[in-house]
Amino acid sequence: MDNSLYNLLLRSFDASLAEAERRQLDKALEASEDFRATRQEIINLRAGLQAAGHQSFKPFFAERVLERLRNPQQSIADYFVSVFRSVAIGAAVLVIICSAYNINRANDFTLESALDIHEPTLEQVLALEAPFE
User: Fold this and answer.
1) What is the distance between the terminal CA atoms of the chain, rounded to a whole angstrom?
2) What is the number of domains present in the chain?
3) How far apart are CA 15 and CA 23, in angstroms?
4) Do 83 and 38 sit in the same domain of this protein?
5) 119 CB contacts (<8 Å, ≥6 apart)?
6) What is the 3-state secondary structure (H, E, C) of the chain?
7) Domain containing residue 10
8) Closest to 103 in 3D by CA, of 112, 114, 92
9) pTM of the entire predicted model
């Protein structure tokens, strides 16, 4: 297939052609089955792209990509520090909530009540040892 005819075919989808170019394209389409198949493939491809809808990237996508290209690798230590920060914040909030609940339930502000730790009685210890005999 002639490259100039292919370029003419591509241009015909997006712009109006001069009369001479339109005749040249029509002759090529009449003469070649492969050229008609190529035109149909382009039509199907354009229809599929239009049906897919418009999707865009998040704001500042290009800047983020360029920054990653400038600094290609984040060190493994930096990665773990960033993950640890988010986990540590969540864990601290959870510990505070659980401690507040335990202190409120026990009505006593001690470490044992905050952690819900109670000293077992002798009966509880003997009850635990009994099943193992």
Assistant:
1) 92
2) 2
3) 15
4) no
5) 112
6) CCHHHHHHHHHHHHCCCCHHHHHHHHHHHHHCHHHHHHHHHHHHHHHHHHHHCCCCCCCCHHHHHHHHHHCCCCCHHHHHHHHHHHHHHHHHHHHHHHHHHHHHHHCCCCHHHHHCCCCCCHHHHHHHHHHHC
7) 3-52
8) 114
9) 0.40
Neighbours of 28 (CB within 10 A): 19
Tens of each residue's pLDDT in the chain, 133 residues: 678 888 888 888 888 888 998 999 899 889 989 989 999 999 999 888 887 777 777 888 888 888 877 776 667 777 788 888 889 999 999 988 888 887 777 777 777 766 677 777 778 777 776 555 5
Structure tokens at 77: 């230590």
Q: Tell me which amino acid residue 104 is.
A: N
Token representation of residue 109: 């502000």
Which tokens hold the place of 33? Answer: 């089955």
Tell whether 39 is covered by a domain.
Answer: yes
In a domain, 113, yes or no: yes
Contact (Cβ atoms closer than 8 angstroms) between residue 36 and residue 29? yes
Nearest to 32 by CA among 20, 21, 24: 24
